[in-house]
Structures are given as C-alpha cells and as structure tokens.
Amino acid sequence: MPTEPVPQGPTPATAAPEGPTAPTRRTFIATGTAVGTTVVAGGVLGTGLLPGSEAAAAASAPSSRLSLTVNGTRHTVTVDNRTSLLDLLREHLGLTGSKKGCDAGACGACTVLVDGRRQNACLTLAVRMEGAEVTTIEGLADGDQLHALQQAFIDQDAFQCGYCTPGQILSGVACIQEGHTRSPEEIAEWMSGNICRCGCYPKIVSAVQQAAGKK
Amino acid sequence: MHPFTYTRVSSTRDALAAGRRGGRYIAGGTTLVDLMREGVEHPATIVDISGLPLDEVRATERGGLRIGALVSMAQAAAHPKVRALFPVISQALELSASAQLRNMATIGGNIMQRTRCTYFRDVTAACNKRDPGSGCAARDGFNRTHAILGASTACVATHPSDVSVAFAALQAQVHLLGPDGERRLSFADFLLRPGTTPQREQALHPGELITAVEIPALPRPLASGYLKVRDRQSYEFALTSAAVALHVRGGIIREAKVAAGGVGTVPWKLPAVEDHLIGERPSDALWKAAAKKAADGARPLAHNRFKVELLQRTVERQLRTVGGHA
Ligand SMILES: Cc1cc2nc3c(=O)[nH]c(=O)nc-3n(C[C@H](O)[C@H](O)[C@H](O)COP(=O)(O)OP(=O)(O)OC[C@H]3O[C@@H](n4cnc5c(N)ncnc54)[C@H](O)[C@@H]3O)c2cc1C
Ligand code: FES
Ligand code: FES
Fold first, then answer.
1. Which of A34, A95, B124, B191 is the least crowded, having the fewest Cβ atoms under 10 Å away?
2. Among A6, A28, A119, beta carbon nearest to B103
3. pTM score, two decimals?
4. How far is the CA of A147 from the centre of ligand 2 (A)?
5. Which CATH architecture has domain A141-215?
6. Is the domain covering A59-139 a CATH 3.10.20.30 domain?
C-alpha cells in the first residue's frame, strides 16, 4: 500500500495544462493532481489566488455545485469533480484538522463522520456529498468543553506528534457509538483503520476505553 | 486525476442507459477513486449508482441468501441473517480493510475490486493488466505477495478480495442486469483467470450492472468460518486465507465447501480438498491429509515459495477450527 504523502495544496509551479507541445502521460497526471486539489469556484476562483492558466483549466474542468453541512454549518460550494471531501475541507473550507497521510484509504488520518458514520475523506468525492452532514475534529467540542474522547486522549497521553490524532478521535467516537469496546482487543481491531506512526496504540486503546466508560 | 463528468442515477434503467453510453459506475468509490488518483483508471464519465434500490439482504425461499450489490460491507457483515446462516461471509468481511472503508465499500464493488499488485498500481511499471502488451514486471520482480496458482506468462497478480473467497467456496451466483435483461453467472465463471488477456478480469459485458450476489441453500446444520493470515494482524491483505463450510450429520462429513485466498489469480476453489473430506469422519488426521491437497498444482515464484506450506497449514487450521477435534 502506498504511504507516500502526495504533494498537495496550491502548487502554482506545476506545469500549465496547455503547453505548446502535447503533455506526456506523466506531466498530464501531475498537472491533473495539482488542479484537482486546488480548484473551487464560488470561493476561491476569481479571488486571484490562482495563476491565470490554472484558473482557465479549472473553469474548463467539469465541476458541480453542492450543499453540505459541516459541523452544523451549511456550505454551498462549486467543486471540480475530482476534489475529494478531504481537500474540500482542508483547502476550501479551511478546516485543516482532518489530515492527509496517504490519500489512498490506507492510514485513516482523514477519518471524518458522514451522516454519523466514519469514513475516509480522501476516497470520498466531494461531489457525492450533496445533503450530507459531516463532522470533523473541529466540530466535536461543545464550546470550551472538550468531547469526552478528546479529553481522554489528553488524560491518557495518547499521542506524540499528533498527526494521526484527529482521525483517531473521529474513528474512536464512531467505534464507541458502534459498541465495539467490549475488550482492549476488540477496540484495537476496530481502531485498526487508523495508523499511528508514533506507535501510541496502547494509550489510544486506553483513551477509547476511558471515553466509553470502561476504565 | 483526469477530469470527468459526474451524474447520479436513481433507477436501474437510467443507470443502464448511462452505462451504455460508456459511463463508469461508482458505488463506494474505494477502489475507483484510489485507482483514478494513481492514474491507473481514467473514466470520462462517472455514474453514481449509490441511490439505486439494490441495498437489501434477504433470505431466499429454500434457505439461501440474496445480498444486494449496494449493501455496504459493514451492513452485510452485521446483518443477522448473514451472521446466522453464513458466518464465513461475516468473518471474511470483518477481516477486510478497515471499519471506515467497510462503511463506504459495497458488495458489488468488492467483487469488482482490482489487484493490489504494486506494479499494476505504478503507472511507470510494465503491467499487462493495466497496459496490455507492456510485459509483467512482477514475474521477475518483487513477487512475495503474488499468485502461486492460476497465473499465466502474462500475469501473476492475486485477486485481493476476502469475501470473494467465501463466495467462491459457497458457489455463489452473481445477478447481472444489462440492456438485454437479467442473467446469472456462477462465481467461478464471473471472475476470469488472466490467461493471455489479464486486462479482462470479470465476465461482465460493458455497461452491465451487478444487482446482487446470491448464496445457494446448503444442508443444515452448516458450520463455517474464515481464516486470514497476513503480515500484520489487521488492515492488511491476505498472504493466505481459507473459507470453509462443513455439513456433518451422523458423524460423517456430507458436504464440504473450501476455497483459498491470497494465493490465486482468482479466489481458489479447492475441489480436491473437498472430495477428500466428503464421506469421512472428522479427525485431525483427516484435516491434515485433506489440507495437503490445497497446494496441488502450485507454481511458486522467486519470492513466494513460502506460500505453498503456509496455504496447506492455513487450510488445515481452518478445517480443524470449523470441523472440530475428533
Ligand atoms: C487501504 C485498503 C485496504 C483494503 N483491504 C481490503 C481487504 O483486506 N480485503 C478486501 O477484500 N478488500 C480490501 N480493500 C478493498 C475494498 O474492499 C474495495 O475497495 C471495495 O470493496 C470496493 O467496493 P466499492 O463499493 O468501494 O467499489 P467502487 O470503487 O465504487 O467500484 C469498484 C469497481 O466496481 C465497479 N462497480 C461497483 N459497483 C458495481 C455494480 N453494482 N455493478 C457493476 N459494476 C460495479 C465500478 O465501476 C468500479 O470499476 C481495501 C481497500 C483499501 C483502500
Ligand atoms: S489520508 Fe490516509 S486514509 Fe485518507
Ligand atoms: S501520534 Fe504521531 S502518528 Fe500518531
């Protein structure tokens, strides 16, 4: 499984899509990737953030308009069809709590709740999210009051670098709701879709146990 | 990722019409979006079928089960009828991917998933499955996870689906809907061995829609289960796996359904193992002797010779788990 982070975010230096010569397969893919992660009309397009050639390519790439609710706030956006839910959240709505680890479903750093269920935002096309209710790490706390699992991660010291933590917490919230907390082994298995390169697994299990009231 | 247009359909009629125009179906998207991002797939039109009414699990008249193509892996695994009638299916699903992915992915998409061969996923490598005629980088490359059964000169990639191993063992049928109406294929005929055309992976006509997978009725009681062996304990594809279902009456094995995963270019049904079991009394010696036949015809590559013995042991252990010590 690939674990290399994919270059992302506004990368204006990438080759312009229309060159004097036909693009090779590789440059075309690279270009597509850059465009796919940077483009949203209705918020970003026309604000001068994109260099002209990319904006032109963006305007010509098929895009769609959709409304979704993120952490209780309704947004109407126009997205290039290639945009993932993760990039919509991070690049366009400014919600950078959800992390991009692998961009391939293989690490869980991008885990969010969609209509109450945990899923990988990197493999979710934003265009499919019409009417969806999305919860990210930014939407868990109630004002200054941390969610019980956020507090448990602090109490149990369940992270080091913290990169996997937002995904771990959203996944843990769902794991508790699903009732897969009867034993440490069961928690470990049902949390296995979230990789922690710092190896905080035992403490993550403890945190989930604590928030589930089993500790 | 190449640009694509996106449409959502709400009836199978509209889906087939869009499919006929060359549209590519998307269900959970966990295979398709991934491979589009890798540059392996580049459909011009994506047809979102998630709104179709194909999301039901129901028992058939004689004790079989019909699982709609759009039932998620999570829903199928948790369904009381699936758990009660065919634990091997629930177990294969719960040992697949992650809880997040199982919420998104569907049964139809799962049996359509493509190989995890790293050369297939790497658009700079030679791969006859991705780019027919370009060669196979895995044959003489790093092939520790590749197939020991069913390979051809053109391709040695394994089929990665776990639940397909259970479906193959139980001789499931795939229900299809196309412009000319409905048809059914046995699971053995649905997934294709690579031969000289590894790019053809399923016996699906262009634009055909999978509507359901049906498990036939089997004599009861039926004990069944799935064992998966891998490099880490969870969230990993199989090195070897075994799906086993046994019907024992009067102390005699009357029916045996056995298939292996992680070893074949398609889920590998094991008729020689089944034949060895039928008519016999369960015993550790029997499990061992039957499992020896699991690797019949295996042709290991440079780095996966270990799979031959691992497969035999995986099958033996799962026969004992399902059939008991006697
Ligand atoms: C990190 C990771 C780990 C994984 N681990 C495992 C594992 O351990 N075991 C395992 O079995 N799987 C595993 N998978 C694979 C996963 O199970 C599949 O990606 C998933 O089941 C595909 O289903 P989907 O609904 O998302 O398919 P999609 O991506 O939507 O579709 C896949 C293909 O099927 C076609 N299709 C979908 N539905 C239909 C239909 N009804 N009719 C006709 N064509 C259709 C699509 O056009 C597409 O070509 C893993 C995946 C990832 C990303
Ligand atoms: S970023 Fe790794 S699973 Fe989504
Ligand atoms: S805390 Fe560093 S990856 Fe988990």
1. B124
2. A119
3. 0.91
4. 23
5. Orthogonal Bundle (1.10)
6. yes
